[in-house]
Specification:
Elements lengths: L7 H12 L6 H7 L17 H8 L2 H9 L15 H7 L3 H9 L15 H7 L3
Helix pairs in contact: 1-3, 1-4, 3-4, 3-5, 5-6, 5-7
Length: 127
């Protein structure tokens, strides 16, 4: 398995962006990369945090840093009710999934607005 490690400077830049990601315009640009999203439900006030974003893209080192900094609620849902765990399972980011599940306060059964759980996301996408 290929492991990517961020050097101090890129990690610092990523954390600066994602720590205050809820109010950052860059989130819309990043979300547009994920074309399968229902962007009609996504508004400028949507609760898509930096932790959601890092989990979506599988950036495990940034996920860990955000968790350790207590920047975001680990079980919060975004504009569709998806948790960071749901984004990681949906996209097959095993390292992020394992990291999130090791936390005692992560709810692996939390349903999104469509009644799907992180496990159903994983199964639906063959992970």
């Amino acid at each position: 398995m290929l492991q990517r490690v961020l050097s101090d400077h890129p990690r610092s830049l990523a954390l600066d962006l994602l720590r205050e990601y809820d109010t950052n315009i860059s989130r819309k640009f990043l979300l547009k990369k994920a074309v399968y999203l229902d962007l009609e439900r996504f508004a400028s006030f949507s609760p898509f945090s930096g932790l959601h974003c890092a989990s979506l893209f599988g950036i495990s080192e940034v996920v860990l840093s955000l968790i350790l900094m207590n920047c975001h609620d680990i079980n919060s849902g975004d504009f569709g009710g998806h948790t960071p765990l749901a984004w990681a399972t949906r996209n097959g980011h095993d390292e992020v999934v394992e990291m999130l599940l090791e936390l005692g306060d992560v709810d692996p059964n939390k349903e999104n607005d469509y009644g799907q759980t992180p496990l159903s996301h994983a199964a639906q996408n063959g992970h």
